[in-house]
């Protein structure tokens, strides 16, 4: 054996070179796959069930024995491996075959995600056939790490096209995630920066919420705000112990604290959560039985913590037992809420989210959900949401207390006003009795005068209404005559007459706006009904998905390349079925090309065919019914479309 961190001696180089080449030859003959370095990707995650490993429960095997040819067939993949299958205090010898590519332009590294692993001994192959030993794990001071990062990384030295075996000896007193990531340094830097940014945001939010509640405490002097501050700071301490940030920044030279930090901070989270629950929900007054249960839970959890700390330190990180106090907190919140204590609703939501975070994390642990970064940090997200909703609960309680105070003040003022009115009433009773008769007479006279005035006004209004009705009847008769004449003569407006109704583009756009959005806006992408003005004039943009709908979208005028007022007139003539104009004469009158005019008439004819198939044929008075297009879906057959075009063109 040799000292960790040093390569094997020169005397052993030849032996190991022969052993490695013999092992490579045997594994190649057995069809073992090598992972090949390729610049086309940026990372590759090796899940535990993809790794070849040998489990040494006695911790007695050496690297010389593991790397020997006789051990080659003992490394196997365990496709049914799950996290719950991990054996504590046993050595997992992992063999990772990698085929180096000298032409690779990237710098590559191997990374263990789990920063709580006690012991990792890496054997990195060298160009001369020897192996370099690297010690990692949270048993080592943080300064000894190759990279100042919370995880464990090994940078690969790729200089030639060679197939290499990397060996790792992993051992931990609690569950360890033995996933290995193979990634480029660029990807690692990007991932690490984003991860530390999220950590900074998370812990920054905790500090801001703590400062806010401290200022609230200074204003209202309620001790529950101090309890809440201690609780969320305990959450922050637990998160820092759990994700390795505490070891990196708070106790980097004391790795032995890692064995106790998670258990101690988890105890603080549970204890201060129970204390805060008692004060915030006023359990002593609202639910005395549950208040007694919470106090006994505090005592029981404290006794269990002392037993763990001094007698069973290996159980400090056992988190399944915390479901009992958390369930008690959650049930107490629901009970108090059902009794009418309104601020408890935010409290219940907060701990419901926390339970959801624990549940998702458990599903990831038992491989029921795939490992992804959001799911891995689901507990952090649930802690953030829990803190926000608990802050809402505190604020809601203050608001309710303020409302109660205001209502009490209003009741006092109201009672004072009632007393003053009673006093004034006694003084005014005699005077009111004297004035009653006079007021009655004056009121009756006033009523008579108002009645006469109303009669005169009503008589005048009736005369005015009769005059208006006579005039309306005369206009109606004339209108009926004109309509009858137009029906008899089949009158069709010419272009100049039509321009009096739709003189320019602005008038046409306003008509389209009223036609499209009469019943308010409706986004065709996400069905949202709220909008704001879009980028173009008369367009509307959805407030949810940002979809911008122009004024001509989903109409027959969409994407036309000539003035829309001319398109209006072409659509009108097509609906009326006027045959006095030929394509050439109409194109000359509208100053358009014949092909352009024919193409748009063809588009209008298709729309008329769709309406006729639905049993609704537009006419001159309802020519605008062809403008709006239906949702993408059913269309008339091409044969029917040609038939309508021929009918329209005459």
From TrEMBL:
Instruction: Report domain Transposase zinc-ribbon positions.
Output: 507-547
In the UniProt record, the signal sequence range is: 1-31
Q: Which UniProt keywords apply?
A: Coiled coil, Membrane, Signal, Transmembrane, Transmembrane helix
The transmembrane residues are: 196-220, 227-251, 257-277, 346-365, 377-395
Where the record annotates domain 7TM-DISM receptor extracellular, the positions are 50-180, 195-397
Coiled coil (UniProt feature): 427-461
Official protein name in the record: 7TMR-DISM extracellular 2
Q: Which organism is it from?
A: Ohtaekwangia koreensis
């Amino acid at each position: 054996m040799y000292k960790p961190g040093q390569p094997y001696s020169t005397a052993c180089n030849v032996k190991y070179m022969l052993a490695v080449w013999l092992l490579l030859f045997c594994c190649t003959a057995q069809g073992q796959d090598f992972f090949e370095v390729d610049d086309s990707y940026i990372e590759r995650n090796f899940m535990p069930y993809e790794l070849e490993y040998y489990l040494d429960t006695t911790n007695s095997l050496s690297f010389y024995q593991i790397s020997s040819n006789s051990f080659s067939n003992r490394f196997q993949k365990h496709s049914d491996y799950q996290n719950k299958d991990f054996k504590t205090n046993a050595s997992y010898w992992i063999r990772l075959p990698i085929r180096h590519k000298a032409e690779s332009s990237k710098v590559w590294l191997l990374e263990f995600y789990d920063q709580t692993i006690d012991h990792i001994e890496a054997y990195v192959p060298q160009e001369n056939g020897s192996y370099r030993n690297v010690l990692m794990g949270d048993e080592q001071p943080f300064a000894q790490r190759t990279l100042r990062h919370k995880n464990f990384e090994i940078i690969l030295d790729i200089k030639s096209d060679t197939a290499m075996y990397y060996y790792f000896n992993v051992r931990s007193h609690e569950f360890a995630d033995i996933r290995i990531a193979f990634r480029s340094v660029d990807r690692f830097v990007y991932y690490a920066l984003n991860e530390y940014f999220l950590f900074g945001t998370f812990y920054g939010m905790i500090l801001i919420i703590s400062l806010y509640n401290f200022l609230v405490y200074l204003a209202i002097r309620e001790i529950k705000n101090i309890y809440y501050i201690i609780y969320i700071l305990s959450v922050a301490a637990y998160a820092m112990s759990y994700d390795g940030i505490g070891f990196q920044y708070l106790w980097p030279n004391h790795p032995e604290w890692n064995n106790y930090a998670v258990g101690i901070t988890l105890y603080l989270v549970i204890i201060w959560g129970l204390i805060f629950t008692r004060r915030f929900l006023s359990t002593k007054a609202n639910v005395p039985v549950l208040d007694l249960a919470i106090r006994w839970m505090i005592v029981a959890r404290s006794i269990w913590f002392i037993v763990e700390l001094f007698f069973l330190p290996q159980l400090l990180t056992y988190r399944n037992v915390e479901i009992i106090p958390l369930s008690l907190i959650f049930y107490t919140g629901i009970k108090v809420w059902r009794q009418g204590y309104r601020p408890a609703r935010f409290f219940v939501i907060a701990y419901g989210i926390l339970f959801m975070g624990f549940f998702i994390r458990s599903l990831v642990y038992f491989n029921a959900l795939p490992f992804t970064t959001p799911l891995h940090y689901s507990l952090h997200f649930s802690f953030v949401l829990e803190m926000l909703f608990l802050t809402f609960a505190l604020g809601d309680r203050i608001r309710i207390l303020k409302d109660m105070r205001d209502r009490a003040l209003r009741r006092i003022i109201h009672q004072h006003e009632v007393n003053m009115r009673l006093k004034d009433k006694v003084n005014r009773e005699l005077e009111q009795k004297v004035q009653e008769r006079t007021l009655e007479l004056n009121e009756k006279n006033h009523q008579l005068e108002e009645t006469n005035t109303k009669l005169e006004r009503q008589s005048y209004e009736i005369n005015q209404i009769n005059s208006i009705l006579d005039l309306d009847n005369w206009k109606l008769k004339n209108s009926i005559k004109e309509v009858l004449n137009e029906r008899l003569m089949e009158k069709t407006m010419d272009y100049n007459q039509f321009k009096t109704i739709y003189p320019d583009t602005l008038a046409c756009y306003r008509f389209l706006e009223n036609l499209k959005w009469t019943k308010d806006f409706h986004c065709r992408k996400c069905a949202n009904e709220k909008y704001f003005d879009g980028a173009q004039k008369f367009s509307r943009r959805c407030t949810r998905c940002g979809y911008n709908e122009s004024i001509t979208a989903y109409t027959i005028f969409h994407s036309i390349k000539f003035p829309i007022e001319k398109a209006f007139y072409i659509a009108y003539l097509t609906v009326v079925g006027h045959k006095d104009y030929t394509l050439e004469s109409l194109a000359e009158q509208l100053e358009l090309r014949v092909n352009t005019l024919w193409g748009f008439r063809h588009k209008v004819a298709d729309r008329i065919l769709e309406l006729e198939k639905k049993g609704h044929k537009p006419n001159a008075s309802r020519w605008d019914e062809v403008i709006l297009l239906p949702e993408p879906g059913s269309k008339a057959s091409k044969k029917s479309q040609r038939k309508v075009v021929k009918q329209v063109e005459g």
